Structure formats: structure tokens, C-alpha cells
Amino acid sequence: MKKALQVAMFSLFTVIGFNAQANEHHHETMSEVQPQVISATGVVKGIDLESKKSPSITIRLLP
């Protein structure tokens, strides 16, 4: 019974350790993401909000 308790405690601490490492790595990845900024002068022709990756904006450039 004592051996089973030791195995259970070891397993619990192992899972907690892996979860802590996974959360830390995920947090670092999220903080590295920078918003993309593009500037242009023109007239907006259309905005596609249904795109799966990100919304896209079509601009007709002024001469």
C-alpha cells in the first residue's frame, strides 16, 4: 500500500510539473506575437471578415 501511494504521489507531481512547463511555454509564445500594421492611402473597396486566418481589407490606392 505504501508503494502504491508513493507511485501515485510521484505521478501527481510529474503531471503538475509537465502542466507548469506547458503553460510557461505557451505564455512565452503568446507574448512574442506582434500585431501587423500596414499603412496606405486610398479608398476601402471591401472588408472580408469571414476569412479563417484573419480579416482582410482591400484598398484601391489613390494616384
List key phrases describing it.
single chain; 63 residues; alpha+beta; two-stranded antiparallel ribbon; 1 helix; 2 strands; 49% helix
Characterize the structure shown.
- It comes from Escherichia coli.
- This is Cation efflux system protein.
- Keywords: Signal.
- Residues 1-22 form the signal peptide.
- With 63 residues, the chain is of the alpha+beta class.
- The protein has one domain.
- 49% of the residues lie in helices and 21% in strands.
- It contains one helix and two strands.
- Strands 1-2 form a two-stranded antiparallel ribbon.
- The model has no long low-confidence stretch (mean pLDDT 71).
Report the sheet-strand fraction.
15-25%
Helix content estimate? 40-55%
Number of domain modules? 1
Question: For the CA atoms, what is the radius of gyration?
Answer: 25 Å
Mean pLDDT, as a whole number?
71
Largest sheet features: 2 strands, antiparallel
Number of strands: 2
Number of helix segments?
1
Taking pLDDT < 50 over at least 5 consecutive residues as the criterion, the unreliable ranges are none
Identify the strand order in the major beta sheet. Answer: 1-2
Anisotropy-based shape: rod-shaped
Q: What sequence of helices (H) and strands (E) makes up the elements?
A: HEE
What is the CA-CA span between the terminal residues?
Answer: 82 Å
**What structural class do you assign from the helix and strand content?**
alpha+beta
